[in-house]
Amino acid sequence: MKRISGQWLLFAAVGAALGVGLTLWFWSKTSQHFLSPYVRVSPDQAFTREDRLSMMEAVYRHMFQAASSSIPTGVTCFLGVANSDDPPPELMERLRNLPRPVEPVSSGLERVAPAAKKTGKLGPSFIVRNAQMVSTNEAQVTALIQQEGQTKKQIFAVRRDNSAWTVTEQPNP
After folding, report:
1. Residues 144-173: pLDDT tens digits?
2. Are the CB atoms for 130 and 114 separated by under 8 Å?
3. Are residues 17 and 47 in the same domain?
4. With contact defined as beta carbons under 8 Å apart, do 161 and 167 qualify?
5. What range defines the domain where residue 27 resides?
6. SS3 75
7. What's this model's pTM, rounded to 2 decimal places?
8. 3-class SS at 144?
9. For 150, left (φ over 0), alpha (ψ -120 to 50), or beta?
């Protein structure tokens, strides 16, 4: 009986592990998983522009309400979308009635320098990074609050009830 050398056994074990790893990677990228919390929807069921604006408005208002007591009066706050984009002008207009002045994140220091000199601080940035559709009436929205060099990530659950989007829970504080 022939004996198999240790080299060949090692080669076979590495090949098997590589094959299993590649199969699992490929499956994870191409298959719809049974345990996935997200559903696949057709393009006509996807969120409209108005839905996206309303979801962002609900999340900004929720974040602002939670943080407003720690924001000094007169401090300008910044709003952003994705990595460093400004919210659409119609959304900025909807949010003009917040208790503190808000500016698009791109406005930078030039426009808010007088407010910063007055209070000694710049206001926080509230950034909506993305939204993941859970169902046609639910989504999870990832957002950031950046203040004084620190960033806090939050994930909010939003739900549509009677065509109005509201924050229903905050899964991870």
Report:
1. 888 777 888 999 999 998 888 999 876 555
2. no
3. no
4. no
5. 1-31
6. coil
7. 0.68
8. strand
9. beta
Whether 107 maps to a domain, the answer reads yes
Q: Which residues contact 67 (CB under 8 A, 6 or more apart)?
A: 124, 126, 145
Domains: count for the chain = 2
Query: In the sheet where 150-161 sits, what is the strand order?
Result: 102-104, 77-81, 125-135, 138-147, 150-161, 164-172
Q: For 38-53, what is each residue's pLDDT tens digit? A: 555 555 667 888 888 9
Report if residue 132 sits inside a domain. yes
CA-CA distance, 22 to 66, in Å (whole number)?
Answer: 45
**Residue 73 is encoded by which pair of tokens?**
């009066």
Is 36 within the bounds of a domain? no
3-state DSSP assignment of residue 140:
strand
CATH code of the domain containing 168 = 3.10.450
Burial class (CB in 10 A: 0-12, 13-18, 19+), 62: buried
Looking up tokens 């790893």, which residue turns up? 21
My answer on whether 97 and 12 are in the same domain is no
- Terminal-to-terminal C-alpha distance of the chain: 64
Residue 121 lies in a domain: yes
